[in-house]
């Protein structure tokens, strides 16, 4: 689900720089935020002067806008929507960004045996309606939508850079990977301009560069599913890494008295039930975004096993069980949260 919040305001109005002197250095801290992809994107960086900082932030947000125009499933003229219209007739040549995101999506689908699946679009549409009407989807509609969901029906041609969708009606949804990809791209852009002490927050997806000058890292607060039940958010300190939380405390709707997540189990076609959050740590935010969603779907033990089998990956999960919450962490998840 990558949509614009529809603010008609210009960049300069919403780009709100705040600068603070950094401890013991000539670099100053700057912070900017803007609505992108249906959420708020934030950049924090250290730079020598105001002009360097704001120019860099503006260009990084422009990169996010470019990506939103490619990956949005709300904009009829996005590249993704054009692919949905034409991709089942013949292979469609696509941009490097779309190709790379789809290639990475398929790798994560293979790794998670389909728990993460960008062809989930028809089910997402059905559950969006269910959340609006607060009625469980009709079983016939559910079966019809589910039949269109299978990442193995996306054909990528690496030499011609084309995408072919094997069945008409397939609909791709990059809502579980696009923001992470955007955060990575924005951070890479800042780093390529020499702004290495930087962090990009794209909703729940965070791409983190070198630590603030003189500090051990960036303090990242984790919004877990038990936050609404009064648990204080926990925090960990990171640098040169990425972290995502899927299913934070705000992403649930009630239907017939049950909480349903915006994450769908592609094996059943049904939205995940019960309060839960899954926080993944890895080297890049494309991976943490996609894996965060996938490990929400997989049973806890499978998710932990998978995280522990992947170099540099760690996971922290909070699951509602009975009247309370249980916390699970893989080896390698930093200390700082309950249960660690
Ligand atoms: P996230 O917040 O990163 O977990 O992404 C959730 C969004 O990804 C949903 O709003 C849907 O647009 C999409 N989505 C839901 N379930 C899946 C799934 N199993 N695999 C891939 N994308 C999904
Ligand atoms: Mg995700």
Helical region count?
9
Order of helices and strands: HEEEHHEHHHEEHEEEEEEEEEHHEE
- Strand runs, count: 17
Name the quaternary structure.
single chain
C-alpha end-to-end distance: 32 Å
- The helicity comes to 25-40%
Q: What kind of sheet is the major sheet?
A: 9 strands, antiparallel
Bound molecules: adenosine monophosphate, magnesium ion
Percent in strands: 25-35%
Alpha-carbon Rg, integer: 20 Å
- Side by side, the strands of the main sheet go 1-2-3-7-8-11-15-16-17
Which structural class best describes the helix and strand composition? alpha+beta
Descriptive account of the structure:
By secondary structure, this protein is an alpha+beta fold. Helices cover 32% and strands 28% of the residues. The protein is built from 9 helices and 17 strands. It has helices spanning 11-14, 50-71, 79-86, 96-111, 121-133, 139-146, 178-192, 285-297, 300-309, and strands spanning 18-21, 28-36, 39-47, 92-93, 154-157, 162-165, 198-202, 205-208, 218-222, 234-238, 241-246, 252-255, 258-265, 270-273, 276-282, 314-321, 324-329. It has a 9-stranded antiparallel sheet with strand order 1-2-3-7-8-11-15-16-17, covered by helices on one side. Strand 1 and strand 2 form a beta hairpin. Helix 4 (96-111) runs parallel beside helix 8 (285-297), helix 5 packs antiparallel against helix 6 (139-146) and helix 7 packs antiparallel against helix 8 (285-297). The longest helix has 22 residues, at 50-71. The radius of gyration is 20 Å and the shape is globular. Mean pLDDT is 91; it is low at 1-14. Residues 176, 244, 246, 289-290, 292-293 line the site of magnesium ion (MG).
């Amino acid at each position: 689900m990558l949509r614009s919040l529809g603010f008609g305001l210009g960049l300069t109005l919403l780009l709100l720089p705040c600068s603070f002197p950094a401890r013991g250095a000539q670099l100053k801290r700057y912070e900017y935020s803007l609505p992108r992809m249906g959420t708020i994107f934030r950049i924090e960086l250290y730079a020598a002067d105001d002009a360097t900082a704001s120019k860099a932030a503006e260009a990084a947000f422009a990169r996010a806008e470019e990506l939103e125009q490619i990956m949005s499933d709300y904009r009829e003229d996005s590249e993704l929507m054009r692919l949905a219209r034409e991709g089942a007739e013949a292979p469609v040549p696509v941009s490097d960004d779309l190709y790379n995101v789809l290639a990475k999506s398929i790798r994560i689908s293979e790794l998670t045996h389909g728990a993460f699946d960008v062809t989930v679009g028809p089910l997402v549409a059905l559950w969006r309606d269910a959340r609006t009407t607060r009625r469980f989807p009709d079983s016939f509609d559910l079966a019809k939508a589910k039949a269109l969901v299978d990442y193995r029906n996306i054909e990528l041609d690496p030499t011609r850079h084309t995408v072919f969708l094997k069945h008409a009606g397939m609909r791709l949804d990059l809502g579980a990977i696009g923001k992470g990809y955007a955060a990575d791209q924005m951070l890479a852009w800042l780093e390529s301009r020499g702004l290495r002490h930087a962090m990009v927050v794209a909703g729940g997806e965070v791409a983190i560069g070198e630590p603030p000058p003189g500090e051990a890292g960036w303090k990242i607060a984790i919004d877990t599913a038990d936050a609404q039940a009064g648990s204080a958010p926990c925090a960990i300190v990171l640098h040169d890494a990425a972290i995502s939380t899927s299913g934070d405390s705000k992403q649930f709707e009630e239907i017939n008295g049950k909480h349903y997540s915006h994450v769908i189990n592609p094996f059943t076609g049904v939205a995940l039930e019960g309060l839960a959050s899954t926080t993944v740590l890895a080297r890049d935010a494309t991976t943490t975004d996609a894996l965060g969603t996938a490990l929400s779907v997989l049973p806890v033990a499978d998710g932990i096993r998978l995280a522990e089998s992947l170099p540099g990956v760690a996971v922290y999960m909070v699951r509602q069980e009975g009247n309370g919450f249980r916390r699970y962490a893989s080896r390698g998840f930093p200390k700082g949260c309950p249960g660690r």
